[in-house]
Structure prediction request, 252 residues.
Amino acid sequence: MPSKTDSSTGNENDDGQIQLSITRVPIDYSALTESVRSNRCGAVVLFLGTVREITGEKKTASLEYEAYEEMAMTELRRLIELARQKWPVEKVSLAHRVGHLDPGDIAIGIAISTPHRREGFEAARFLMDRIKETVPIWKKENWADGTTDWVHPEE
Amino acid sequence: MTVWIAGRISENMTDSIQVTVRCFAGLKEKIGKPEFSLVLPSGCSCATFKEQLVAFYPETSVYSSRLLVARNGSYLNDADLINDRDELACFPPVSGG
Prediction:
Protein backbone atom coordinates (compact mmCIF):
# COMPACT_ATOMS: atom_id res chain seq x y z
CA MET A 1 0.00 0.00 0.00
CA PRO A 2 1.16 3.56 -0.62
CA SER A 3 1.97 5.76 2.31
CA LYS A 4 -1.12 7.49 3.65
CA THR A 5 -1.55 10.74 5.43
CA ASP A 6 -4.25 10.74 8.07
CA SER A 7 -6.25 13.27 6.08
CA SER A 8 -6.49 11.36 2.84
CA THR A 9 -8.28 8.37 1.43
CA GLY A 10 -5.71 6.32 -0.44
CA ASN A 11 -5.93 3.16 -2.42
CA GLU A 12 -3.81 0.96 -4.62
CA ASN A 13 -5.14 -1.99 -6.57
CA ASP A 14 -3.79 -5.51 -6.34
CA ASP A 15 -1.31 -5.36 -9.20
CA GLY A 16 0.03 -1.95 -8.17
CA GLN A 17 -1.00 -0.38 -11.48
CA ILE A 18 -3.53 2.08 -10.07
CA GLN A 19 -3.07 4.58 -7.24
CA LEU A 20 -5.94 6.77 -6.15
CA SER A 21 -6.22 9.32 -3.38
CA ILE A 22 -8.59 11.99 -2.18
CA THR A 23 -6.48 14.25 -0.06
CA ARG A 24 -6.40 17.42 2.01
CA VAL A 25 -2.70 17.99 1.42
CA PRO A 26 -1.09 19.51 -1.70
CA ILE A 27 -0.70 17.13 -4.64
CA ASP A 28 2.89 16.06 -5.32
CA TYR A 29 2.74 15.96 -9.10
CA SER A 30 6.37 14.90 -9.43
CA ALA A 31 5.70 11.80 -7.33
CA LEU A 32 2.46 11.22 -9.23
CA THR A 33 4.29 11.35 -12.56
CA GLU A 34 7.18 9.21 -11.34
CA SER A 35 4.81 6.53 -10.05
CA VAL A 36 3.49 5.66 -13.51
CA ARG A 37 6.81 5.50 -15.38
CA SER A 38 7.43 2.06 -16.90
CA ASN A 39 9.89 0.44 -19.28
CA ARG A 40 6.92 -0.99 -21.13
CA CYS A 41 5.68 2.51 -21.96
CA GLY A 42 6.84 5.18 -24.36
CA ALA A 43 4.50 7.85 -23.06
CA VAL A 44 3.56 9.45 -19.77
CA VAL A 45 0.74 12.00 -19.81
CA LEU A 46 0.18 14.25 -16.80
CA PHE A 47 -2.90 16.44 -16.45
CA LEU A 48 -3.24 18.99 -13.66
CA GLY A 49 -6.46 20.83 -12.97
CA THR A 50 -5.62 24.10 -11.20
CA VAL A 51 -7.70 26.78 -9.51
CA ARG A 52 -8.44 29.58 -11.99
CA GLU A 53 -8.59 33.05 -10.48
CA ILE A 54 -10.54 34.82 -13.22
CA THR A 55 -13.77 33.47 -14.76
CA GLY A 56 -15.27 35.98 -17.16
CA GLU A 57 -15.77 39.16 -15.13
CA LYS A 58 -15.58 37.43 -11.75
CA LYS A 59 -12.60 36.92 -9.50
CA THR A 60 -12.19 33.81 -7.36
CA ALA A 61 -10.82 34.24 -3.84
CA SER A 62 -10.76 30.51 -3.12
CA LEU A 63 -12.58 27.23 -3.72
CA GLU A 64 -13.96 24.68 -1.28
CA TYR A 65 -14.04 21.08 -2.51
CA GLU A 66 -16.26 18.43 -0.96
CA ALA A 67 -16.29 14.72 -1.83
CA TYR A 68 -18.45 11.72 -1.12
CA GLU A 69 -15.24 9.83 -0.70
CA GLU A 70 -16.32 6.18 -0.68
CA MET A 71 -18.37 6.56 -3.83
CA ALA A 72 -15.79 8.82 -5.48
CA MET A 73 -13.17 6.09 -5.09
CA THR A 74 -15.57 3.46 -6.47
CA GLU A 75 -16.47 5.68 -9.42
CA LEU A 76 -12.82 6.53 -10.16
CA ARG A 77 -11.96 2.83 -10.25
CA ARG A 78 -14.90 2.18 -12.58
CA LEU A 79 -13.81 4.95 -14.97
CA ILE A 80 -10.20 3.75 -15.00
CA GLU A 81 -11.44 0.24 -15.81
CA LEU A 82 -13.46 1.70 -18.71
CA ALA A 83 -10.36 3.52 -19.96
CA ARG A 84 -8.35 0.32 -19.76
CA GLN A 85 -10.94 -1.45 -21.90
CA LYS A 86 -10.51 1.20 -24.60
CA TRP A 87 -6.76 1.88 -24.49
CA PRO A 88 -3.66 -0.08 -23.41
CA VAL A 89 -3.20 1.90 -20.21
CA GLU A 90 -0.29 0.59 -18.14
CA LYS A 91 -0.48 2.65 -14.94
CA VAL A 92 -2.72 5.39 -13.58
CA SER A 93 -2.05 7.58 -10.56
CA LEU A 94 -4.73 10.06 -9.62
CA ALA A 95 -5.11 12.48 -6.73
CA HIS A 96 -7.97 14.89 -6.01
CA ARG A 97 -7.79 17.59 -3.36
CA VAL A 98 -10.67 18.39 -1.03
CA GLY A 99 -11.06 21.28 1.38
CA HIS A 100 -9.85 24.85 0.89
CA LEU A 101 -7.86 25.69 -2.27
CA ASP A 102 -6.38 29.01 -3.32
CA PRO A 103 -5.93 30.27 -6.90
CA GLY A 104 -3.13 28.35 -8.58
CA ASP A 105 -3.47 25.31 -6.32
CA ILE A 106 -3.76 21.89 -7.94
CA ALA A 107 -7.24 20.41 -7.53
CA ILE A 108 -6.62 17.22 -9.48
CA GLY A 109 -3.63 15.42 -10.91
CA ILE A 110 -3.81 12.45 -13.28
CA ALA A 111 -0.73 10.63 -14.53
CA ILE A 112 -1.08 7.87 -17.13
CA SER A 113 1.47 5.69 -18.86
CA THR A 114 0.82 4.00 -22.21
CA PRO A 115 2.97 2.33 -24.86
CA HIS A 116 2.43 5.24 -27.30
CA ARG A 117 1.51 8.90 -26.95
CA ARG A 118 -1.79 8.90 -28.83
CA GLU A 119 -3.58 6.51 -26.48
CA GLY A 120 -2.09 8.34 -23.50
CA PHE A 121 -3.59 11.68 -24.55
CA GLU A 122 -6.91 10.05 -25.44
CA ALA A 123 -7.18 8.07 -22.21
CA ALA A 124 -6.25 11.09 -20.08
CA ARG A 125 -8.84 13.24 -21.81
CA PHE A 126 -11.49 10.52 -21.50
CA LEU A 127 -10.81 10.11 -17.80
CA MET A 128 -10.83 13.82 -17.06
CA ASP A 129 -14.05 14.39 -19.02
CA ARG A 130 -15.83 11.51 -17.29
CA ILE A 131 -14.57 12.51 -13.85
CA LYS A 132 -16.26 15.88 -14.29
CA GLU A 133 -19.53 14.12 -15.15
CA THR A 134 -19.90 11.34 -12.61
CA VAL A 135 -17.41 11.38 -9.73
CA PRO A 136 -19.20 12.77 -6.65
CA ILE A 137 -17.00 15.75 -5.87
CA TRP A 138 -18.23 19.36 -5.77
CA LYS A 139 -16.67 22.78 -5.59
CA LYS A 140 -17.95 26.00 -4.12
CA GLU A 141 -16.71 29.34 -5.41
CA ASN A 142 -15.78 31.89 -2.78
CA TRP A 143 -15.84 34.99 -4.98
CA ALA A 144 -13.62 37.96 -4.25
CA ASP A 145 -16.77 40.10 -3.66
CA GLY A 146 -17.69 37.91 -0.68
CA THR A 147 -20.50 35.92 -2.33
CA THR A 148 -20.43 32.13 -2.71
CA ASP A 149 -21.82 29.71 -5.31
CA TRP A 150 -21.84 25.94 -5.57
CA VAL A 151 -20.64 25.15 -9.08
CA HIS A 152 -22.87 22.92 -11.17
CA PRO A 153 -22.42 22.26 -14.86
CA GLU A 154 -25.11 23.57 -17.17
CA GLU A 155 -27.55 20.97 -18.47
CA MET B 1 -56.57 5.15 -0.08
CA THR B 2 -53.27 6.47 1.14
CA VAL B 3 -52.63 10.15 0.80
CA TRP B 4 -49.00 11.15 0.48
CA ILE B 5 -48.06 14.57 1.67
CA ALA B 6 -44.47 15.70 1.37
CA GLY B 7 -42.74 12.57 2.61
CA ARG B 8 -45.23 11.91 5.40
CA ILE B 9 -47.98 9.36 5.28
CA SER B 10 -51.42 10.16 6.57
CA GLU B 11 -52.73 6.62 6.98
CA ASN B 12 -52.06 2.97 6.25
CA MET B 13 -48.43 2.82 7.37
CA THR B 14 -48.07 -0.76 6.11
CA ASP B 15 -47.80 0.62 2.57
CA SER B 16 -44.85 2.77 3.49
CA ILE B 17 -41.11 2.29 3.41
CA GLN B 18 -38.41 4.30 5.11
CA VAL B 19 -35.02 5.20 3.70
CA THR B 20 -31.94 6.91 5.07
CA VAL B 21 -30.49 9.63 2.88
CA ARG B 22 -26.99 11.10 2.94
CA CYS B 23 -26.78 14.39 1.12
CA PHE B 24 -23.84 16.45 -0.07
CA ALA B 25 -22.69 19.87 -1.22
CA GLY B 26 -25.43 22.42 -2.01
CA LEU B 27 -28.19 19.94 -1.15
CA LYS B 28 -26.73 19.41 2.33
CA GLU B 29 -26.58 23.18 2.82
CA LYS B 30 -30.20 23.64 1.73
CA ILE B 31 -31.46 20.85 4.00
CA GLY B 32 -29.20 21.87 6.86
CA LYS B 33 -28.02 18.38 7.85
CA PRO B 34 -25.93 15.65 6.24
CA GLU B 35 -28.35 12.78 6.81
CA PHE B 36 -32.08 12.31 7.28
CA SER B 37 -34.83 9.72 6.99
CA LEU B 38 -37.70 9.87 4.56
CA VAL B 39 -40.93 7.89 4.49
CA LEU B 40 -42.01 6.87 0.99
CA PRO B 41 -44.80 4.88 -0.61
CA SER B 42 -43.76 1.26 -1.02
CA GLY B 43 -42.81 0.40 -4.58
CA CYS B 44 -41.81 3.96 -5.28
CA SER B 45 -39.34 4.75 -8.02
CA CYS B 46 -36.21 6.84 -7.80
CA ALA B 47 -38.07 9.62 -9.64
CA THR B 48 -40.80 9.58 -6.98
CA PHE B 49 -38.17 9.60 -4.25
CA LYS B 50 -36.74 12.82 -5.70
CA GLU B 51 -40.19 14.37 -5.94
CA GLN B 52 -40.93 13.46 -2.32
CA LEU B 53 -37.59 14.83 -1.16
CA VAL B 54 -38.20 18.17 -2.88
CA ALA B 55 -41.79 18.24 -1.56
CA PHE B 56 -40.58 17.64 2.00
CA TYR B 57 -37.69 20.12 1.69
CA PRO B 58 -39.06 22.78 -0.70
CA GLU B 59 -35.85 24.80 -0.36
CA THR B 60 -34.17 22.11 -2.49
CA SER B 61 -36.48 22.75 -5.45
CA VAL B 62 -33.70 24.71 -7.16
CA TYR B 63 -32.14 21.30 -7.91
CA SER B 64 -35.39 19.29 -8.47
CA SER B 65 -34.96 16.96 -11.43
CA ARG B 66 -31.22 17.48 -11.60
CA LEU B 67 -30.63 15.63 -8.33
CA LEU B 68 -28.53 12.48 -8.60
CA VAL B 69 -29.26 9.41 -6.47
CA ALA B 70 -26.93 6.54 -5.63
CA ARG B 71 -27.23 3.30 -3.67
CA ASN B 72 -24.18 1.30 -2.59
CA GLY B 73 -21.93 3.55 -4.65
CA SER B 74 -23.83 3.15 -7.93
CA TYR B 75 -26.10 5.67 -9.61
CA LEU B 76 -29.82 4.88 -9.84
CA ASN B 77 -31.99 5.63 -12.85
CA ASP B 78 -35.35 7.36 -12.48
CA ALA B 79 -37.21 4.08 -13.04
CA ASP B 80 -35.23 2.08 -10.45
CA LEU B 81 -37.28 0.99 -7.44
CA ILE B 82 -36.49 2.10 -3.91
CA ASN B 83 -36.55 -0.57 -1.19
CA ASP B 84 -37.41 -0.35 2.48
CA ARG B 85 -34.35 0.56 4.59
CA ASP B 86 -32.29 1.58 1.57
CA GLU B 87 -29.34 3.80 2.37
CA LEU B 88 -29.34 6.35 -0.41
CA ALA B 89 -27.03 9.19 -1.32
CA CYS B 90 -28.47 12.25 -3.01
CA PHE B 91 -26.65 15.25 -4.41
CA PRO B 92 -26.61 17.96 -7.09
CA PRO B 93 -24.68 17.57 -10.38
CA VAL B 94 -21.00 17.01 -9.67
CA SER B 95 -18.29 19.60 -10.29
CA GLY B 96 -14.96 18.09 -9.35
CA GLY B 97 -11.67 18.51 -11.17
